[in-house]
Amino acid sequence: MDVPLAKFLTWPPFYTLQPNLDTQNQQLALWSQVILDYAKNNKIYIATMESFDGITRNNELNRFLSEELKDILFKYMKKQKFIIAEGLSMLVFWQKPETWAEMIYRWASNSGRIGTVETVEGLVSGDETTSEEFYGMPVNYAIEVLKTLQKSKKAEMFAVGDSYAVKFF
Amino acid sequence: MEVKLTESSRPVLIPNEVIIKEQSKVEVLFEYFLCSDSKQGEYYCYLTSHRLVCVSKKNFAIPLAYIEGQKAAGGFLRTHRIEFNVRIKALPQYLHEYMPQALMPSMISMKFTVGGRDEFLTQIDTACRAESWNKPIIVEQKQIKVEGYGIGGIKQALKEDTHDRNQTLSAGFKDLKSLSDKSRELKNLASKLKQMDESKDPELQEIKATMASMGFTSGVTKETAGKNYIPQLARELCDFIKEPLQNNGGLLPLLDAYCIYNRARGGSVISPSDMAQACELFESLSLPIKIRVLAGGTKALSLGGQAVENLTRSLIEKIREVGHLSSKEAAEIFKISTTIALECLLLGENQGQLCRDQGLQGLHFYYNLFLRN
């Protein structure tokens, strides 16, 4: 979506829930983009409703997203698979799980890890991956990503004690 | 013989003329001296204080002054009729303009196919006896006595003027009965005030505006129109409301129209249900005004079918020009009511042309950049 989002953020109607459904859909799509960009720039993997207050409030205009609009927005984002709810918090996928999974698999094959077993924790916070983009990813977030690799039969996860390990194929 | 009609086919009244009685389905027969009779067909008849006006495809009016020897005819097993002789007489000078000389039949017979004869006849008798046409038109032309000159004189004159006006007004408002009686006098005062165009005094301007919206002495009533009350009401309403409509961008909420119309009627107020019924008839009577239910449920009178759409289009144009508008701002710019303005803005929103901003300053509408980038 090539829309200058900055323009919308200084435009008052952006902060009011639009009753016309066509308009509302477009509004929600634009807001999703704003939230994902914000999450990406601030490396927010796990968020609560309050995590985005920095962007959903515009003090200069004296406008902010109402609870109702936030609620509708997060439901929309869930439907679009931009977020996955997990208890009171949510996982924010500013990159698609498949994109993340591809990154991890590329690292595994480049560093000759195909066929070996790695702990998930080691994968995202170990010394081997500090220069990778997925370094610093929370473990439960990484598990969601690895599930897509498991689905495409490129990896398999299993429990080791109370943590998880993964084997790449 | 011919007669001027308003756009909705009611007679245009002569100054001081009042409609006394209306009757539908009257068959009229002309009898000429030494000639054969000529059937004129079925008419809708108005008895006014000055004339008998018959409206159909071909219209004619007979000055009451010409009517002589009116009597009831017909009866047992025959349709009720009124017969009278027509004798041309000299009319007061001012009436020549309204009642041009014409060939008149020597006798006229009116057949009342749906009843109402006796009452009509009584009213003809009364009206002929009253001879309203011989009464001069009251035009207030008072000489103001100026005692002294300069500012003192002007002040004195103004004071007298105000005093007279106050008396007329306070007597008029004493009770509703006398209000209707006074309505003619008030109307004269109103038209007099209207003529004082050179005046720039804001207070006087306001009085002028108020008086101008008061105003006709011969509103349709159940007594005059009988069974035809609602259709005739629809016609009169249509004639009257046209001007207010034009001044309001072609649209008025039904409630506003009701208030304006009733104020003009003075004492004889109509009920909301009469108004609603009359409005329902606009279409079947093919009158130029339509009643519309707008998106938000507001009922409104509109001039022509496209008034709402046209207004909405100009509102959107304006918003593109100035950025955003609230319904109140829109109402001020386009001189329409806020209800109508809001309805049009909501219509624009429904069409996806506009979107809203609910801030602390109220609801504002913007051009829809979400969909129209």
From TrEMBL, chain A:
It comes from the Eukaryota. Keywords: Protein transport, Transport. GO terms for cellular component: ESCRT II complex. SUPFAM superfamilies: Winged helix' DNA-binding domain. Gene3D superfamilies: Winged helix' DNA-binding domain. Chain C. Domain 1, Winged helix-like DNA-binding domain superfamily/Winged helix DNA-binding domain. GO terms for biological process: protein transport to vacuole involved in ubiquitin-dependent protein catabolic process via the multivesicular body sorting pathway. InterPro entries: ESCRT-II_cplx_Vps25-sub, ESCRT-II_cplx_Vps25-sub_N, WH-like_DNA-bd_sf, WH_DNA-bd_sf. Belongs to the VPS25 family. This is Vacuolar protein-sorting-associated protein 25. It comes from Stentor coeruleus.
From TrEMBL, chain B:
It is found in: Cytoplasm; Endosome. InterPro entries: GLUE_dom, PH-like_dom_sf, Snf8/Vps36, Vps36, WH-like_DNA-bd_sf, WH_DNA-bd_sf. Keywords: Cytoplasm, Endosome, Protein transport, Transport. GO terms for biological process: protein transport to vacuole involved in ubiquitin-dependent protein catabolic process via the multivesicular body sorting pathway. GO terms for molecular function: phosphatidylinositol-3-phosphate binding; ubiquitin binding. GO terms for cellular component: ESCRT II complex; late endosome membrane. Residues 3-140 form the GLUE N-terminal domain. It holds the Pfam family EAP30. Its main location: cytoplasm. Component of the ESCRT-II complex (endosomal sorting complex required for transport II), which is required for multivesicular body (MVB) formation and sorting of endosomal cargo proteins into MVBs. PANTHER family: VACUOLAR PROTEIN-SORTING-ASSOCIATED PROTEIN 36. Belongs to the VPS36 family. Component of the endosomal sorting complex required for transport II (ESCRT-II). This is Vacuolar protein-sorting-associated protein 36. It comes from Stentor coeruleus.
